[in-house]
Design a protein that fits this description.
Blueprint lengths: L27 E8 L3 E2 L2 E5 H11 L1 H7 L2 E5 L11 E5 L1 E4 L2 E4 L3 H7 L10 H14 L5 E4 L6 E5 L3 E5 L2 E2 L9 E7 L12 H4 L6 E2 L10 H13 L3 E2 L3
Helix pairs in contact: 1-2, 1-4, 2-4
Amino acid sequence: AGTDYRSASGRGYSSKAELDFHTDGADVVALTCFNQAPEGGMSMITNSVAAHAQMQKERPDLLELLHQPFHFSRQNEQAPDEGPFYPNPVYDEADGRLCSKWNRNRIQSAQRIEGVPPLSPDQREAMDVLDDILRRPELMFTTYLAPGDMQILSNHTTLHSRTEFTDHPEPERKRLLYRLWLAPPDGPRLPESWRPAYRSVAASSVRGGIVGQSQDDMRRNFERRMAATHGMTVAAR
């Protein structure tokens, strides 16, 4: 840990800084704590669906903007057939279900990329209002993950974050969490507007994660075998 979270290639897992509320690029994210930080690193979870309902009451004019595309940076981890950014609304629906995709850091990072239109003042205000609502005590749950604790979240209805932390000097005692991204067999259909991010929006589909430069035939064949075992389809890679 110790990298710059706000850099063009910054990632939260390698930084000690406080993170923005965000979703990961998978249907489900699981975090298991192995080592706890001596100070800080509090886990924060908030309800993106409840935040949508609250914003509808307070600022429906700005909420409408969040249903329109924003541009998200891929943080220099795009696959050869992917661009450095992709469009995605913060909120959209599929089969009557509201879904959210939010990562302020990646939206702001995309502003550095050629071809991305600048955020309008109204878009920035909408982002600020959403962030304010997400942090309200009635929507947010906070906890410290202790060794052995596991946290499992849907990325389509919840957002997660953590506070800044300081770490132990000894390598074997440093804060360590194991993360798993899951595409469950009963995964829901996603909004069509999610396709640039997930490649597949079909229900029961192996999708998500970071394709990047590491995909090879061995990994693709493994995905196909696992998908066949569970009766799932596989997103095009």
